[in-house]
Amino acid sequence: MADAARSNLPPLALHVPEPKFRPGDTVDFADVEIPAAGSARRPDTTEDPRGFSELVYTMVRVLDEDNRAVGPWDPKLSPDTLRRMLRHMALVRAFDERMFRAQRQGKTSFYMKSLGEEAVAVPQAYALDADDMCFPSYRQQGLLIARGCPLVDMMNQIYSNRGDKLQGKQLPIMYSEKRFGFFSISGNLTTQYPQAVGWAMASASKGDTRIAATWCGEGSTAEGDFHSALTFATVYRAPVIFNVVNNQWAISSFSGFAGAEATTFAARAIGYGIAGLRVDGNDALAVYAATQWAAERARTNAGPTLIEHFTYRAEGHSTSDDPTQYRSAGEPTAWPLGDPIRRLKDHLIAICEWDEERHAAMDREVADEVKAAQKEAEKNGILGHGLHQPLDTLFDGVFEEMPWHLREQQAQMLAEEAESGRPWDRK
Ligand SMILES: Cc1ncc(C[n+]2csc(CCOP(=O)(O)OP(=O)(O)O)c2C)c(N)n1
Ligand SMILES: [Mg+2]
């Protein structure tokens, strides 16, 4: 010990978080606190955040145990809207399933599913205006699908084939879709947060009416970008919605490593004086209502909102991950907030606007739709089949005008390729 005079003090120690369940353990989520549906207050969208700070510690929930919509957050959507939302959620799941399988078949190098999280992006796309700008992470494919992006375009990007508008320059699933207000996905976690704030500030300073929304995972809240984004947003009351998708895991790190043992992720909002909501992320109606509330707040210059979506990542992190190595296989089925698609389906059935036959028919239809799109996309090529972008496009699209040193490198590359005797397939 360095200082004998202090030897009567206990030795310092660190707390190292440990997940509750590891492979082989029986899962019991009884200690996950789930407030009753309808119990959270719905403040006015112009209220000072200090007046409703309790909302970061509870959960906005609309669908109750009998699959009824209850309480002040019920968005009272028409059955038609609910059915369309359900279909988009089912389409996301079918798309994920098919593309996951395509990766296993060697048709692409990489894929990321959003299984169990379909009630986050899809209802949010419904609650936002079509021209509001989204700065997503890699698990919000639901935004693109709900905004009507052709599945073939998404698949071409996943296959990095000759139909890929990004010319194979982005990792599969890192879409960029200006047409659908979907900012280029970056693999560098949370860079989209300050970008969204900057975009929102620009929108306000131009006197525009469009707002921004951004998403990151709970693990990503540990990034410095998360905190600087919140600081800028609160100072200038930027018209932006911050979404933290708490799916309990960040690859193999459980949420405790991002601070979940100490408080909620929604509570991050309090330190910044930002409105904070914690939402049942598997309840499509609650997610819709919270997003609509936050959008109205942003659009009326009342300030940003941080929404924690409490959900569960039912699959591995990506096709490169094997969750059986670090978590109990019982977790996804034991998750107390259920399956988001099943919950919306059960609600529609409970209000006599849906039935099992129609649901089964819908599932068949979305599966066929995905299958047909896949057939179309594969005409443009799959991994390793030569139908990729021409080699001379490799340097395109980075600078508006290619600098001299890149032109030199491009010329050198093409010359070496011509001499190699293995000419690049330009079909
Ligand atoms: C700056 C940075 N650090 C680390 C990584 C590696 N990485 C990619 S995804 C990921 C986990 C992110 O987890 P979370 O934020 O909870 O999002 P989720 O995948 O659960 O949706 C990590 C650590 C990265 N891509 N960028
Ligand atoms: Mg996560």
Automatic annotation (TrEMBL):
Provide any one GO MF term from the record.
branched-chain 2-oxo acid dehydrogenase activity
| Cofactor entry | thiamine diphosphate
According to the UniProt record, what class of enzyme is this?
oxidoreductase
Q: Which residues form the signal peptide?
A: none
Q: Which UniProt keywords apply?
A: Oxidoreductase, Thiamine pyrophosphate
- Which stretches make up the Dehydrogenase E1 component domain? 87-382
GO biological process annotation, one example: branched-chain amino acid catabolic process
Q: Where is the 2-oxoisovalerate dehydrogenase E1 alpha subunit N-terminal domain?
A: 10-49
Is-annotated flag, keyword rRNA processing?
no
Keyword Nucleotidyltransferase belongs to the record: no
Which Enzyme Commission numbers does its entry carry? Answer: 1.2.4.4
Catalyzed reactions = N(6)-[(R)-lipoyl]-L-lysyl-[protein] + 3-methyl-2-oxobutanoate + H(+) = N(6)-[(R)-S(8)-2-methylpropanoyldihydrolipoyl]-L-lysyl-[protein] + CO2
The family note in this entry says: Belongs to the BCKDHA family.
Described by its record, this protein's role is as follows:
The branched-chain alpha-keto dehydrogenase complex catalyzes the overall conversion of alpha-keto acids to acyl-CoA and CO(2). It contains multiple copies of three enzymatic components: branched-chain alpha-keto acid decarboxylase (E1), lipoamide acyltransferase (E2) and lipoamide dehydrogenase (E3).
Q: Could you identify this protein by its name?
A: 2-oxoisovalerate dehydrogenase subunit alpha
State the organism of origin. Answer: Sphingomonas jeddahensis
Q: What gene name does this entry carry?
A: bkdA1
